[in-house]
Amino acid sequence: MKILVTGGAGYIGSHTCVELLNNDYELVILDNFSNSSKDVLDNIKKITNKDFTFYEGDMIDKNLLQTIFNENEIEAVIDFAAFKAVGESVSKPVAYYQNNVSTILNLLTIMQEHNVKKLVFSSSATVYGNPASVPITEDFPIGNTTNPYGTSKLMVEQILKDLYNSDNSWDIAILRYFNPVGAHESGLIGEAPIGKPNNLMPFITKVAKGELPKLMVFGNDYNTVDGTGVRDYIHVVDLAIGHIKALEKLNKENKGLFIYNLGTGTGYSVLQLIETFERVNNIRINYEITDRRPGDIDSCYSDPTKSKNELNFQTKKSLDDMCKDAWNFEKNYHK
Ligand code: NAD
Ligand code: UFG
User: Fold this and answer.
1) How far is Cα of residue 298 from the mean position of the Cα atoms in its chain?
2) Tens digit of each residue's pLDDT (9 = 90 or more) over 246-285
């Protein structure tokens, strides 16, 4: 089966491409390298010893999408291509809506023209806003997003639901990721954000490497085990496998639109993550407690029951693995 992976050179996309190739899917990757680099493609090949077709370009370019669908018998699409920096989305809302919403409208238009109606979409736990309780199930209310990035994911979810209601021959999986961290065990691919990291794990690895002096822990007065924010960290390889499970579901049963949480179901605090990183890697992380970051919430973790029951998806990797693999990648990685 031939899959188009948009944003396939990115963090989650590259790990998913590895799993897809390992499962004998044929791949066409589209990426504009706005937040990734060309080396990733060679590293995917090195890990899997398999090849794929690649197009460099922007998903906003309808002609390019048309060419890709004309030149390849695409049967399904996994769409990762988006901007993802929460803070940046507040200062550049137009760019975020353009890149995260307009582009998928182009993609859906061309998919319709070519009668390709299977789509896996990268959404986020951010659509739950500040949940009334945890763990979060898929039927929790969504909305009240606190930044344009989150709102862009909410908008696309709505677009996909409207599309499905208009034509239920579509098969769509909306996957709401919790906090992806870690890297492939080879150390060849991982999270390599351009510029200063916004997220906790890549910040920790940069401090461990000595590229940043100190981690700022954003607040220790949350209503959690030790006052620091609690999140559901999921190993990126487990997350990648979740996409294979979603594709299998869309292939087996033509039943429509599905929404799944992809998380482990367990929350860890910032301090617990730091302690685990220090212990498994035998390295000290310089940190300081500072003010809360605007928009952050106390706790966010998934109820993974639905994805377990319906996708047969279960995470295998522990927080120790996440911390080891993240550091292994960072040590190997040279810009
Ligand atoms: P990433 O930035 O590493 O990967 C995105 C890839 O898409 C990059 O390679 C980038 O160059 C490419 N891209 C962006 N806009 C493009 C465009 N218009 N045309 C072509 N290529 C384009 O991000 P990621 O962490 O791998 O995230 C993948 C998806 O998962 C995104 O949609 C993101 O919003 C979503 N998501 C990520 C997280 C997270 O914490 N990483 C959490 C929830 C959801
Ligand atoms: N944190 C720090 N210091 C830092 C960075 C983060 O203390 O330098 C804390 C945050 O306050 C939070 C936790 O670490 O308590 C995790 O923060 P991240 O920025 O790593 O992740 P978030 O949970 O804020 O958000 C992430 C993605 C969003 C996505 C969301 C849910 O950035 O895109 O997970 O999937 F929507």
Assistant:
1) 21
2) 999 999 876 799 999 999 999 999 999 999 999 999 999 9
Quick one: residue 161, left, alpha or beta (phi over 0 = left, psi -120 to 50 = alpha)? alpha
The residue written with tokens 């906090």 in the block is 179
Q: What is the pLDDT of residues 295-332, one digit of tens each?
A: 899 999 999 999 999 999 999 999 999 999 999 999 98
Of the listed ligands, the closest to the CA of 11 is 1
Maximum C-alpha span of the chain: 55
Structure tokens at 244: 């294979």
Tell me the angle at which helices 11-22 and 39-48 cross, rounded to the nearest 10 degrees: 30
Q: To test the ligand 2 pocket, which listed residue (200, 203, 264, 275) has its Cβ within 8 A of the most ligand atoms?
A: 200
Ligand 1 pocket residue status of 302, Cβ below 6 Å: no
Whether residue 197 has a cis bond before it, omega within 30° of 0: no
User: Tokens standing for 320?
Assistant: 């120790």
Cβ of 82 closer than 6 Å to ligand 1, yes or no, is yes
Helix or strand run (H / E) with residue 202: helix 200-209
Residue 215 alpha carbon, nearest atom of ligand 2: 8
Please, are residues 62 and 68 in contact by the beta-carbon 8 Å criterion?
A: no
- Catalytic sites, residue numbers: 149
Token code pair at residue 301 = 């973790």
Q: Which has the closest alpha carbon to 182: 240, 247, 229? A: 240
How far is ligand 1, taken at its centre, from the CA of residue 11, in Å?
7
Q: Which residues pair with 233 in a beta bridge?
A: 179
Ligand nearest to the CA of 190: 1
Residue count of the chain, please give it.
Answer: 335
Q: What are phi and psi of 61, to 5 degrees?
A: -85, 100
Q: What is the dihedral of CA 270, 290, 216, 198, to 10 degrees?
A: 80
Cα–Cα distances in angstroms (integers) from residue 200 to residues 27, 44, 66, 159, 270, in the given order: 31, 25, 38, 31, 8
Counting runs of H as helices and runs of E as strands, what totals does the chain give?
A: 12, 14
pTM as predicted:
0.98
Question: What does the block give as tokens for 274?
Answer: 């730091």
Give yes or no for residue 317 CB within 6 A of ligand 1: no
